[in-house]
Design brief:
This protein is of the alpha+beta class and 365 residues long. The chain is built from 8 helices and 13 strands.
Length: 365
């Protein structure tokens, strides 16, 4: 698809070059003396150059859409002026224009989220380089101690920031099709904050751009079709705040040393289950972690608002850890399934896999 579009712009540009050649080398002298054909011919050449530059920028992943957008507008004006000879040029213009608009919207969305992520990581408190010892975990419930020991945090430095990459699939309804996605996430563990950015392939030629975040105790979710049309934009209310907090609490399994943070408290339920409570900026959420006897975390369950809107109702949110893998010396559940346990049925809505995770790195991928 990428190269097909590049070929389309290249051929369309060459057609404009033919317009220039026609005016300067084929048109009669009488027409040129009138002062009409040569100026128009020069513009055809300019548009040809613009499409060539746009194609090169597109292939090199630079901001090609600005020049392509202008080239299409000028091209269409030329086509209207010479409609009988060049009307079929409207077809490639009608393809290039919306694609360039979507590319611009996608870039704008990504830049917005990236800038916020840079600020998040820049403000991370990195002066603390505490090495975790066995004494640091003595006060925790036994299953939590086994988990932290098994995961490999003992002897490692306390995690202050996290960056990770994901892939997986999700769906919006129990009977809808699975949609593949890729995502990146940045976390400031010192301030209990994260920003998550995803690109979801909803259907052929249609993608969704999403951003979920928890910053300073405030949650926010934004989803746009093609980066243009907002379909979800929720923020600044209790239900979206607590939803983001519960998500962050469940993801502690990916950065285990967070279990030692002051905003997390633990309560032992039995020899394999412990309740974690997350208190931050006057808001409180909690959830239950399940561990096996080896020390691996196997599940997380909490009451969470289903949907995130102000009308959402509390439902059971269940995360099942299906696989474990070591990253940088820390073992984490790298594959998880997320299930809404509704009264009517279980809604399996997300399968996620961690492909890369780095601790205490404050630069974007």
């Amino acid at each position: 698809m990428k190269y097909a579009f590049a070929i389309l712009m290249s051929i369309h540009g060459l057609i404009h070059l033919m317009g220039f050649i026609r005016v300067f080398f084929i048109t009669s002298i009488n027409q040129q003396v009138l002062g009409i054909s040569q100026p128009i011919g020069a513009i055809w050449l300019v548009v040809f150059i613009m499409f060539v530059v746009a194609t090169i920028q597109y292939l090199t992943q630079k901001q090609w859409y600005y020049i392509a957008f202008v080239a299409v507008i000028i091209s269409q004006i030329l086509i209207v002026l010479t409609w009988s000879d060049s009307k079929f040029g409207t077809l490639p213009n009608s393809l290039i224009l919306p694609i360039s608009i979507v590319a611009y919207a996608t870039s704008t969305f990504n830049n917005m989220v990236d800038e916020s992520s840079k600020v998040l990581l820049k403000n991370t408190i990195t002066t603390s380089r505490t090495t975790i010892s066995e004494k640091d975990i003595e006060h925790l419930p036994k299953p939590v101690q086994r988990w932290l020991t098994h995961s490999g945090v003992i002897g490692n430095i306390m995690t202050n920031s996290v960056r990770l990459q994901q892939k997986g699939k999700m769906r919006t309804k129990p009977d809808s099709k699975w949609m593949p996605f890729e995502a990146v996430q940045y976390c400031d563990i010192t301030k209990a904050s994260f920003i998550w950015k995803t690109n979801v392939k909803a259907m052929p030629l249609i993608h969704l751009l999403g951003r979920d975040k928890l910053v300073d105790g405030h949650g926010a979710m934004l989803i746009k079709v093609l980066g243009l049309i907002p379909v979800v934009n929720e923020e600044q209310h209790l239900k979206i705040n607590t939803g983001a907090m519960i998500r962050y609490l469940s993801e502690m399994c990916w950065f285990p040393s967070m279990a030692l943070r002051d905003y997390i408290t633990w309560e032992s339920i039995n020899h394999t289950i412990a309740k974690a409570t997350f208190i931050y900026k006057g808001q409180t959420v909690s959830g239950v972690f399940t561990f096996n006897l080896e020390g691996k975390v196997e599940g997380f369950k909490a009451q969470r608002y289903f949907g995130g809107t102000e009308k959402a109702k509390l439902e059971t949110w269940y995360v099942v850890m299906t696989s474990h893998q070591s990253f940088n010396g820390i073992e984490i559940p790298n594959k998880c399934n997320v299930i809404w346990q509704l009264k009517e049925h279980d809604f399996h809505w997300l399968h996620v896999e961690i492909t890369t995770i780095d601790y205490n790195k404050t630069k974007l991928f």
